[in-house]
Design goal:
Blueprint: H1 3-21, E1 32-34, E2 37-41, H2 53-57, H3 64-67, H4 71-75, E3 95-97, E4 121-127, E5 142-147, E6 152-165, E7 170-182, E8 185-193, E9 196-208, E10 213-237, E11 242-254, E12 257-265, E13 272-296, E14 302-322, E15 328-353, E16 356-377, E17 391-413, E18 419-436, E19 440-456, E20 461-471, E21 482-483, E22 492-493, E23 503-514, E24 520-532, E25 535-539, E26 548-552, E27 556-569, E28 574-591, E29 598-599, E30 607-617, E31 622-631, E32 636-639, E33 643-649, E34 652-660, E35 666-672, E36 678-687, E37 695-706, E38 709-717
Parallel strand pairs: 3-5
Antiparallel strand pairs: 1-2, 2-4, 4-5, 6-7, 6-38, 7-8, 8-10, 9-10, 9-37, 10-11, 10-12, 11-13, 12-13, 13-14, 14-15, 15-16, 16-17, 17-18, 18-19, 19-20, 20-23, 21-22, 23-24, 24-27, 25-26, 27-28, 28-29, 28-30, 30-31, 31-34, 32-33, 33-36, 34-35, 35-38, 36-37
Length: 718
């Protein structure tokens, strides 16, 4: 065991001892618990003088369980989090506003937390049980933000910031939000412009299989990102039984970058250097419209309709120039991807008896990708202006469309005051059609059951177990030829029209303990995923070229666990000090299609950790803290047809200080990446076939780092 890992484990052991030694002390805060729901009234946060809902949540122990979910649930196959989940579904975002989910994928509840001023909040509920009244099902915990009710209220929140980068560059930013209520109409309108800059430098050495130095590569990359986000959330209470919501978001995220690269050939005598320059235009536009209508009948039954329409366009042009030969262009790579999604969902919820309810419904989702790729090189053949004046190598275009229908039923049973069981059954049928370079049509059918059982062993100790069948959302980019942004040599990657959805049976068991007096929370989780049709690299080589693509390689498994702890140091008369720590360990196995051996799943590391410290000095109107995150040694391995890559990175550190200043303004100072985090990759290349039959050619050792960033933010409301 290396010294670095030993220090981390020692820290975590000591932290665990402290957690389990805590006893109830001090004055009981103004927090109520009822039916597995923990309620924090707005008055609870007065001592902290928070600016936004996000600031309020930062003061709640154990909030990351609901705010960020489990590491394994976010990153595993078939993730239901965020914009990658299949359709709208029953899960996804674990944040509700006034008991309702925001109908959106990008413009969802979690994205609103920093936009809603704290002075608009009545209370915050942490819902630990299941209920037919919730718009989100099957989540470990749900955050419900309950806003003030008034005939007329409004608030404007703003944040001005300036980021100072290590190379002297300064980037200003601005956020504005207007929220309020006027009669039956409530609104939240926000806009933000947060320009970002990154200067990353890297160095690579290559050693041949015989031990001789091959070459070195020195890189400098400059990224000038210009993101703009505009969002609107509107709600209107038509009557006591009818309510309607409308949501709109527009994102523009242009991130052009340039790269200077010096390649030195150490095999030549004397050593020869080539100077290359990459100019990359990277434009992205996204808009989304969503809404819902809900009618509540006299008997309490509900009928709800939801819809989402969104579109995203990614336009990318990479041109490479050889400066040794007078700015001669030797690479032209242009891609354009247009994604469209249309979703409609309707459901009816009914009360069977006081302890049981049932929701039935249907969902239709249509997802479309239109993709083009043009690759031009200096091969000496005919040239074309459409390929930047170079010789055409690849001219690919494709359209992929999936139409999916989902019929579902959810039964919620409150067995007694301490136990609940939620049962879900989903039948899914879909058709995937592909046209362009390849014409193909395939039909799929899936049955997806799920059981969610919860048992409040004591008022403080809760057991949660889940069994479900999951189907992953396919990446449509896997169907078509696409770019490889991680490899200077392999500019494009092949598509696979035969790829199928990855499936899994998932088993999770969770145990959560809440200390008295809001002194802390400790949460443990164990999971096992039985995988089918694992997506990995497969051989699609031809007689002319050795090439791989994403495809299905067979069965696999994934397993692991986590411990998440939050602790107030009330025992040491420091109740405003909050310590957090989280450790996730995981492993998995599948049969490698090239080596024929069982190995770790693609892109899976051994685990991650995160720990933090926060101290609110309310009497002095100051709070400060530090957060550290990283991964265990062993990194993330990637196996490809002719290479094996091992990725590692150092810890990421962020520290902050906030001061309540003149005029009610909040001044926040941040230091990010102060130790200049390294990201490293060891890549072993093979020739003469696959990694199993080929011969080791070279080993590349590459590392890069971005500098530190310092920021000042000024926040206020009126």
């Amino acid at each position: 065991m290396n010294q670095k890992l030993r220090i981390r484990l020692t820290f975590l052991l000591k932290f665990s001892v402290i957690v389990f030694s805590v006893k109830a002390s001090g004055q009981e805060p103004s927090i109520s618990e009822d039916d597995a729901t923990v309620t924090y009234p707005a008055s609870y946060f007065d001592q902290y003088e928070p600016f936004s809902v996000s600031d309020m949540l930062d003061r709640i122990p154990g909030i990351n369980i609901a705010r960020q979910g489990n590491f394994n649930s976010q990153s595993g196959p078939g993730s239901s989090q965020g914009s990658d989940r299949r359709g709208l579904g029953l899960g996804g975002d674990q944040v509700l506003i006034n008991g309702r989910r925001i109908t959106g994928k990008e413009n969802e509840g979690n994205s609103q937390l920093s936009r809603i001023p704290a002075n608009q909040v009545s209370r915050i509920e942490i819902i630990r049980g299941t209920s037919g009244d919730l718009d989100v099902r099957g989540a470990s915990q749900v955050i419900n933000i309950v806003l003030l009710e008034a005939q007329s209220r409004s608030s404007i929140a703003y944040e001005a910031n300036a980021d100072h980068y290590h190379d002297g560059r300064i980037k200003p930013g601005l956020k504005l939000s207007l929220s309020g209520q006027r009669g039956n109409f409530d609104y939240l309108v926000s806009g933000e412009a947060e320009p970002r800059w990154e200067y990353r430098k890297g160095y690579e050495t290559s050693i041949l299989a015989n031990g001789l130095p091959n070459d070195t590569v020195s890189r400098k990359t400059y990224t000038d990102q210009q993101p703009i986000v505009l969002s609107t959330n509107l709600g209107y209470q038509l009557s006591d039984q009818d309510i309607i919501h409308f949501n709109l978001q527009y994102n523009q995220n242009d991130a052009p970058y340039t790269e200077d690269r010096v390649i030195t050939d150490l095999l030549s005598s004397p050593a020869k250097s080539d100077i290359q320059f990459d100019n990359v235009g990277n434009d992205s536009d996204f808009w989304e419209i969503g809404g819902d209508y809900e009618h509540t009948f006299q008997n309490g039954n509900r009928w709800k309709n939801l819809f989402i329409v969104n579109k995203k366009e990614d336009d990318r042009l990479r041109e490479r120039f050889n400066l040794n030969e007078g700015d001669v262009k030797d690479l032209f790579l242009k891609t354009f991807n247009q994604y469209e999604e249309k979703i409609f969902r309707t459901s009816y919820s009914m009360n069977i008896n006081p302890s049981q309810d049932l929701e039935v419904g249907v969902e239709r989702a249509q997802t479309t990708l239109e993709s083009t790729l043009k690759l031009g090189l200096t091969t000496g053949g005919d040239t074309s202006n459409q390929f930047g004046g170079l010789s055409p190598i690849t001219d690919s275009n494709a359209t992929v469309e999936e139409i999916r229908y989902e019929t579902f039923a959810v039964h919620n049973w409150q067995i007694n005051d301490r136990m609940s069981l939620e049962s879900t059954l989903i039948f899914e049928e879909s058709t995937i059609k592909q046209s362009g370079d390849i014409s193909k049509k395939r039909d799929f059918n899936f049955i997806r059951p799920k059981l969610d059982y919860r048992f409040d062993i004591t008022p403080s100790l809760q057991l949660r177990t889940t069994i479900e069948k999951d189907v992953a959302q396919l990446s449509f980019n896997d169907f078509t030829a696409n770019i490889n942004s991680r490899d200077d040599d392999q500019n494009s990657i092949a598509g696979n029209p035969e790829i199928r959805q990855e499936q899994s049976w998932r088993y999770d068991i969770n145990l959560e303990y809440r200390f008295n007096n809001d002194n802390g929370v400790i949460n443990t989780n164990l999971f096992y995923h039985d995988l089918e049709d694992v997506i990995d690299k497969i051989d699609v080589s031809t007689s002319a070229i050795i090439q791989s693509a994403n495809g299905n390689i067979g069965d696999g498994e994934r397993y692991g666990g986590s411990v998440d702890a939050s602790l107030r140091l009330a025992k040491f008369d420091l109740p405003q000090v909050l310590l957090t720590a989280r450790v996730d360990v995981e492993d998995g196995v599948a049969t490698d299609p090239f080596l024929g051996i069982d190995r770790r799943l693609q892109r899976q590391g051994r685990g991650r950790y995160r720990y933090g410290f926060r101290h609110d000095m309310s009497a002095r109107n100051i709070n400060y803290g530090i957060n550290v995150s990283g991964s265990f040694e062993g990194g993330s391995l990637i196996y490809d047809i002719d290479k094996i890559e091992d990725y590692n990175m150092e810890d990421f550190i962020m520290a902050f200080v906030e001061v309540q200043g003149w005029g009610g303004l909040i001044y926040r100072f941040e230091a990010t990446n102060v130790h200049e985090q390294y990201r490293c990759r060891i890549r072993s290349r093979y020739t003469g076939g696959t990694i199993a039959t080929g011969v080791l050619s070279e080993i590349e050792n590459s590392c890069s780092q971005a500098g530190e960033k310092y920021a000042i933010k000024i926040r206020g409301t009126f």
